Amino acid sequence: MTGVIQYKPVVSELLQKEQELSFDAVLHPYAIVVTQDCDLDWDYRARQTASSQPSKLLNSVILCEIATAREIRDTADDMNSAAWKLVVSHRHERFYFFEKILAECEIEQEGLPELTADFKKVFGIDAATLYRQIELGVVTRRTVLASPYLEHFSRRYHSFHSRVALPFQYESEREG
Q: Which DSSP state fits 99?
């Protein structure tokens, strides 16, 4: 997706009671939906029927921020050429690399540059707000991640978010 706008409350106003909050609009040029397809389908169907089922409605749709591969390579901490090779080969646990998409293979017929998802940059948007942005054409679907790449992305994403925090890293004795 391109053009997703996230509305974040102005934090300094959160302590003031009984006052309307201001919101900052955060534009996400690229994002990928990570909410499960079945949940999105149930939510959409529930919103289409007059007797909506509250148990099927989503509060938010979860997305993962995506940047151009060049941006990630230039701005990520410790992203030397060896680390970048891990990203491109899908062996860096934090990032997922997407190759360039040619214009004829993309919905808008413009093509997309090499992109990279950063699994640490996840955000949620109120489902109704996201649907309205799509309806208004603010947000556009650019491509579909087909099987088995969809499953590969999903496994990598969920693997990153299911890590177990250790109090310290294992260390190996150096051989003398």
A: -
Which residues lie below 8 Å from residue 162, measured CB to CB, with a gap of 6+? none
Count of alpha carbons within 13 Å of 149, Cβ hemisphere only? 8
Give burial (CB, 10 Å; 0-12/13-18/19+) of 66: buried
Is the distance from CB of 26 to CB of 19 less than 8 angstroms? Answer: no
Backbone angles phi, psi at 116, to 5 degrees: -140, 130
List beta partners, residue 61.
Answer: 125
Cβ distance 157 to 145 under 8 Å?
no
The dihedral built from the CA positions of residue 154, 1, 129 and 20, taken in this order, carries a sign that is positive
Longest distance between any two alpha carbons in the chain, whole Å: 74
Gap between the Cα atoms of 139 and 123, Å rounded: 15
CB 45, CB 23: distance < 8 Å? no
Instruction: Specify the higher pLDDT residue, 113 or 169.
Output: 113
Element of type H or E holding 96: strand 95-98
pTM for the model: 0.86
* Cα 72 versus chain centre, distance: 14
Neighbour tally for 117: CB within 10 Å: 26
- Residues 110-135 have pLDDT tens digits of 999 999 999 999 999 999 999 999 99
What does the block give as tokens for 66? 């995506």
